[in-house]
Design brief:
The protein is 47% helix and 15% strand. By secondary structure, it is α/β, with parallel strands linked by helices. The strands form two sheets. Strands 1-8-7-2-5-6 form a six-stranded parallel sheet, sandwiched between helices. Strands 3-4 form a two-stranded antiparallel sheet. Helix 1 packs across helix 6, helix 4 crosses helix 5 and helix 5 packs parallel to helix 6. The radius of gyration is 21 Å and the shape is elongated. The protein starts with a helix and ends in an 18-residue tail after the last helix.
Length: 223
């Protein structure tokens, strides 16, 4: 009986600690998401008419295809948003940054080809083949491509984190929201973004995480 009583007390103590841990994690996640969506709202634009002009836009990469067959709507809407700003004179040059970690997978080239098909001059596009994450893309835009002022292009839920990372790395950034492919549904990428924002805080303030690759500086020539 005594053994069972001790075991029960230990289990209750463990359950209490687990609940406290889960509560702390939940409060941290809520605080991080509230901070990013509140503090960076003024950096984000929904209308091309209202957004200020910048010389260079940074388009954040994503998989061009779903199931290696269907066009990814997150990809196509980012391309459309970049073309909108370019054709309206809100940006003069487009830096496309994505994953090219394997010869068979090349986000930057796919973005370049899609932009050219829609009328963007090849000379007005620069490719970053080592944008393996949002952090990599943002930091490399300054440390490699020497840009301290940018217009970031991605979906709205993604742009808050991108603007946070830009500010932490000395980049004066605004963001333009590409259309939401599923406007009335909270999609899987949006759910993942809640945790990605928490990771961005840890990467920045605790781990001081840096891009996987940097390398020599590359000049972007704008007109």
């Amino acid at each position: 009986m005594r053994i069972a009583s001790k075991l029960l007390r230990k289990l209750l103590k463990l359950a209490g600690l687990s609940m406290l841990l889960l509560l702390s994690i939940g409060m941290f996640a809520f605080g991080v998401n509230y901070y990013m969506t509140t503090c960076f709202e003024s950096n984000i634009y929904h209308n091309k008419t209202d957004i200020p002009k910048n010389e260079v836009a940074l388009v954040l990469g994503t998989n061009p295809l779903i199931y290696n067959r269907y066009i990814n709507p997150y990809f196509s809407t980012r391309i459309e948003a970049a073309v909108e700003l370019y054709c309206s004179g809100k940006v003069n040059h487009i830096l496309v940054s994505g994953d090219n970690g394997h010869p068979s997978y090349d986000e930057p080239t796919a973005m370049q080809q899609a932009l050219i098909k829609k009328g963007v001059l090849e000379s007005d596009i620069t490719l970053d083949y080592a944008g393996f994450s949002t952090l990599d893309s943002v930091i490399r835009s300054k440390k490699v491509f020497q840009q301290s002022q940018l217009t970031i292009i991605s979906q709205g839920f993604h742009n808050y984190r991108a603007c946070f990372l830009a500010k932490q790395n000395g980049i004066d950034a605004i963001a333009y929201n590409a259309k939401a492919p599923f406007p009335n549904i909270i999609s899987k990428p949006e759910y993942r973004e809640y945790l990605a924002r928490c990771k961005a805080i840890i990467d920045t303030y605790i781990l001081n995480k840096q891009p996987k690759f940097l390398g020599e500086k590359i000049s972007i020539k704008t007109t």
